[in-house]
Amino acid sequence: MEKQSLRTEDFEYQLPPGSIAQIPVEPRDSSRMMVLSRGSTEIAHRQFHNIEDYLKPGDALVLNDTRVRPGRLHGKKETGGSVEILLLRRLEERTWVVMVRGRGMRSGARVELSGGKVFGTILKEDGQNRVMRFTRSISPILCEMGEIAVPPYIRERLVDEERYQTVYGDKEGSAAAPTAGLHFTRNLLERLRYKGVKIVTVTLHVGEDTFLPVRVERITDHPIHREWCCVNDKAVRTIKGVRRGGGRVVAVGTTTARVLETAARADSGKKISPVYGETDVFITPGYRFRLVDVLITNFHLPRSTLLMMVAAFVGANGRKQILDAYKVAIMAGYRFYSFGDAMLIL
Predict the structure, then answer these.
(1) What is the pTM of this model?
(2) In-domain check, residue 153
């Protein structure tokens, strides 16, 4: 399917509300895992800890080591009304792109936070988002004034905020979790290392597209957001070595796939260079993956850029194959979205 002909409605599907996972399973790696073979109708149903059966010595398992910041802030307007702010991206030391829940939050509106310790002023409107400038740097005090924000489709209270963090994330900066990584336990990672799988970390701080559905009719009209990412020299050396040895690059999640494809070079499909900065790569059906060989992912929202990326990874008939697999998953009782089950695409 040509990118120019893609419509957002092509990535629509109907999900029963009861299929949306509200709480994470315990232990993490006991979630279900659908195994999908590209270009085939073959589907296997496993549990996530069975991932060991599909990874080989010499493969590179690439993890996104970002960590979700406590970016949900509660404040009040000058009129006394309540306001909820979600930090999305930092532009400067005291200036952020935010989502705001509250009436009348236009340019010039002022919000009091943390009992008057900090104030924020909306500088301008940026589509559905706002650009807000605070009276002081809030990064050092987020732990005391903020809380972890889970997606709005999760209605249950999150008892343990660490369950919305991966066990390996250590670089705070995301608005949302890289949810494919939530299935891994430390023990499972150690078993994979013992097997000979190379564990590689990259960083991509997840931004606002996780919260914003695609609203335009034609996908090419969607203004894809930028996300900060990093692939360091060590990761580059390891991945090059894996490639030379005939191993596969296994991306844990669409965020990892995005940063890897940013680091890949188009001329040979085999090269990778260090990256430190923003990426605006938009992967939709028709895109030729240059570096990722295997993808571990969750079940994504309809009409989302993440679903489009997964369809692109599956290949020429990816949209149909993924939507057919989603129908199977719904019928089989899989749990969807952030705290839901996993899909392994080979």
Answers:
(1) 0.94
(2) no
